[in-house]
From TrEMBL:
SUPFAM superfamilies: Fibronectin type III, Immunoglobulin
CDD domains reported in the protein's UniProt record: FN3 (cd00063)
Protein name: Ig-like domain-containing protein
Transmembrane segments: 349-370
Residue ranges occupied by any Fibronectin type-III domain in the UniProt entry: 211-309
Keywords: Glycoprotein, Immunoglobulin domain, Membrane, Signal, Transmembrane, Transmembrane helix
Domain of life of the native organism: Eukaryota
InterPro entries for this protein: FN3_dom, FN3_sf, Hematopoietin_rcpt_L_F3_CS, Ig-like_dom, Ig-like_dom_sf, Ig-like_fold, IL11/IL27_subunit_beta, Immunoglobulin_dom
Region (Disordered): 310-345
Length: 372
């Protein structure tokens, strides 16, 4: 130790260590420079306070370690920095220093807007769950928290549980579905203020099941105009402790046609008996709560394409390709079918004419005998 103090080389080592200590200290100051966060409103004047400066007139301000500040600003006589009509370029880490350059205070500035009214919508896919979500009408650009609740016209206030981030939806479990209306109350709060949005909804009118699932259709051997259609209830409808019945609507049409045929059913499967023989058909199914007449029909299930049985196949078929109506083979088959039908109609007409002739002959003979 004595050598380090007395030797020039030792002094150099100590000086080097002190220099490293100074650099590390300065680095630590800048690493932890933001001691406070201040929020301001975009387009307004924002004032930053330096803090406990001894001589406020000698305060120097820096933005992100640079002496370059937003061009629209002024420094007051007591050392405060006023940003005039602050915009997004004024955001950042501000620091104020004394005349020796020593750091006095740091502040991180964030700019945005106070909350506005929310655009709220609710989805009721079964009797036991309501999902409400919302979209900001004003982009605040600031962190926000949401407090949500609901109340029926004959019940107490209950919570609508806010989901994890992004926290713009909440869930109501076991709602009082048959009350006339409910008020959904959502309050958005950010550092610049708060705003409450109240929405009156009728859960029983918003009830809309999800589309039926696993829709399939098969032809029936020996029946060229029949299709058997199967489906299952939507998985979300099975969440109800008490299974509420659904009713279903099936629509179908030949590929290339713009006209749908519709038929209703309360269960699966459903038999189509008037399919166009030899042609692929498009099918869709939707569902509605069978008990609640005010509820909504679900969206249609994804489009399914299937073909009835034809004599050229030994098994029921489910086709997934459109029919080419310009196919010459199909036209020839149709022409042959029409020709055979015409021949049958011609034979029937000849028989009727022969019977008519016999009847006329008998009548004429009878009249002749009577006259004689």
């Amino acid at each position: 130790m004595t050598c380090l103090v007395s030797c020039p080389s030792g002094l150099l080592v100590i000086g080097h260590l002190l220099a490293l200590s100074s650099v590390n200290t300065q680095s630590e100051i800048w690493t932890n420079e933001v001691s406070d966060v201040q929020y301001g409103r975009l387009g307004s004047n924002v004032t930053l306070v330096c803090g406990a400066a001894l001589d406020r007139t000698s305060v120097k301000w820096r933005l992100n370690r640079s002496s370059m500040l937003p061009w629209q600003h002024r420094v007051t006589s007591d050392g405060q920095l006023v940003l005039l009509q602050a915009d997004r370029t004024a955001e950042g880490n501000y620091s104020c220093h004394d005349d020796r350059g020593r750091l006095i205070r740091t502040t991180r500035l964030r700019l945005g807007h106070p909350p506005g009214l929310l655009n709220v919508s609710c989805r009721v896919s079964n009797h036991s769950l309501v999902l409400c979500s919302w979209v900001e009408s004003v982009k605040t650009l600031l962190p926000a928290q949401y407090h949500t609740s609901y109340r029926g016209n004959k019940s107490q206030v209950r919570m609508c549980v806010v989901s994890s981030p992004p926290q713009k939806q909440c869930t109501i479990t076991d709602p009082t579905m048959w009350q006339h209306y409910h008020n959904i109350n959502i309050t958005e709060t950010n550092p610049l203020g708060s705003q409450t949005t109240i929405l009156m909804v009728k859960f029983h009118e918003l009830l809309q099941p999800d589309p039926p699932e696993a829709v399939t259709a098969v032809g029936m051997v020996g029946y060229p105009m029949r299709l058997q259609v199967y489906w299952t209830n939507p998985a979300s409808w099975l969440h109800d402790a008490v299974p509420f019945p659904l009713r279903f609507q099936l629509r179908y049409r030949p590929v290339g046609s713009s006209i749908w045929s519709n038929v209703e059913s309360k269960s699966s499967p459903l038999l189509i008996t008037d399919a166009l023989a030899g042609h692929a058909h498009q099918l869709q199914v939707r569902a509605q709560d069978d008990i609640n007449p005010d509820s909504q029909w679900s969206d249609w299930s994804p489009l399914l394409q299937a073909c009835p049985w034809s004599g050229s196949t030994a098994e029921p078929t489910e086709e997934t390709f459109p029919v080419d109506y310009n196919d010459t083979d199909a036209d020839a088959s149709t022409a042959n079918t029409k020709s055979e039908s015409s021949e049958d109609d011609g034979g029937s007409l000849l028989i009727l004419l022969a019977l008519f002739a016999v009847i006329i002959l008998v009548l004429v003979s009878s009249l002749s005998v009577l006259m004689w």
